Amino acid sequence: MANILIVEARFYDHLNDLLLAGARAAIEAAGHTHETVTVPGALEVPGAIALAAEAYDAFVALGVVIRGETYHFEIVAGESARGIMALTMDGLAIGNGILTTENEAQALTRARPDEKDKGGEAAKAALAMLALRARFG
Ligand SMILES: Nc1c(NC[C@H](O)[C@H](O)[C@H](O)CO)[nH]c(=O)[nH]c1=O
Ligand SMILES: CC(=O)[C@@H](O)COP(=O)(O)O
C-alpha cells in the first residue's frame, strides 16, 4: 500500500473540489492511502512537492489555471508544468492534474468526475509511475 500526497492549488474552490473528489476516489479504488495539502496557486505546487519529496511514495498535482487578460497565464501554466516535469525527471512519481483552460466551462467539464475526470486521471498516472519505479528504480 502506498501513501500518496495530493498537492492542490486552491484557486477556484468549486473546481478544486471536483478534481479532489476524482483523485481521492481513484487512489482509494486502487487500495492506497492519501493526504492532501493546499497551496495558494499552481506556481507553488512544484515547490510543495519538492519539500515533501522524502515523505510520500507519489504525488498528485491538482489545480486550475484559466486564461486571463495578460501574459500571466503563460507563466503560471508553463512554469508549474515545467517545475513538475523537472521533479519527474529527478525520479519522483507525479501525476499532473493542473488544468490550463481558456474558460471556466472547459475547466468544469475536465474536473467533473463523471465527465473527463482529470483528477482521477492524474492520480492513476501517479500510481502508474510508482509501479514503474518499483520495477526499474
Ligand atoms: N492565475 C492563477 C494563479 N495564479 C497565482 C499563482 O499560481 C501564484 O500563487 C502567485 O503568483 C503567487 O506566487 N494560480 C492558479 O492556480 N490558477 C490561476 O488561474
Ligand atoms: C492565470 C491568469 O491568466 C489569470 O488568472 C490572471 O489574469 P489576468 O491576466 O487577467 O491578470
UniProtKB/TrEMBL annotation:
<dbReference type="GO" id="GO:0000906">
    <property type="term" value="F:6,7-dimethyl-8-ribityllumazine synthase activity"/>
</dbReference>
<dbReference type="Pfam" id="PF00885">
    <property type="entry name" value="DMRL_synthase"/>
</dbReference>
<feature type="active site" description="Proton donor">
    <location>
        <position position="72"/>
    </location>
</feature>
<comment type="function">
    <text>Catalyzes the formation of 6,7-dimethyl-8-ribityllumazine by condensation of 5-amino-6-(D-ribitylamino)uracil with 3,4-dihydroxy-2-butanone 4-phosphate. This is the penultimate step in the biosynthesis of riboflavin.</text>
</comment>
<comment type="similarity">
    <text>Belongs to the DMRL synthase family.</text>
</comment>
<protein>
    <recommendedName>
        <fullName>6,7-dimethyl-8-ribityllumazine synthase</fullName>
        <ecNumber>2.5.1.78</ecNumber>
    </recommendedName>
</protein>
<keyword id="KW-0686">Riboflavin biosynthesis</keyword>
<dbReference type="InterPro" id="IPR034964">
    <property type="entry name" value="LS"/>
</dbReference>
<feature type="binding site">
    <location>
        <begin position="64"/>
        <end position="66"/>
    </location>
    <ligand>
        <name>5-amino-6-(D-ribitylamino)uracil</name>
    </ligand>
</feature>
<keyword id="KW-0808">Transferase</keyword>
<feature type="binding site">
    <location>
        <position position="110"/>
    </location>
    <ligand>
        <name>(2S)-2-hydroxy-3-oxobutyl phosphate</name>
    </ligand>
</feature>
<dbReference type="InterPro" id="IPR036467">
    <property type="entry name" value="LS/RS_sf"/>
</dbReference>
<feature type="binding site">
    <location>
        <position position="11"/>
    </location>
    <ligand>
        <name>5-amino-6-(D-ribitylamino)uracil</name>
    </ligand>
</feature>
<feature type="binding site">
    <location>
        <begin position="69"/>
        <end position="70"/>
    </location>
    <ligand>
        <name>(2S)-2-hydroxy-3-oxobutyl phosphate</name>
    </ligand>
</feature>
<dbReference type="InterPro" id="IPR002180">
    <property type="entry name" value="LS/RS"/>
</dbReference>
<feature type="binding site">
    <location>
        <begin position="42"/>
        <end position="44"/>
    </location>
    <ligand>
        <name>5-amino-6-(D-ribitylamino)uracil</name>
    </ligand>
</feature>
<feature type="binding site">
    <location>
        <position position="96"/>
    </location>
    <ligand>
        <name>5-amino-6-(D-ribitylamino)uracil</name>
    </ligand>
</feature>
<comment type="pathway">
    <text>Cofactor biosynthesis; riboflavin biosynthesis; riboflavin from 2-hydroxy-3-oxobutyl phosphate and 5-amino-6-(D-ribitylamino)uracil: step 1/2.</text>
</comment>
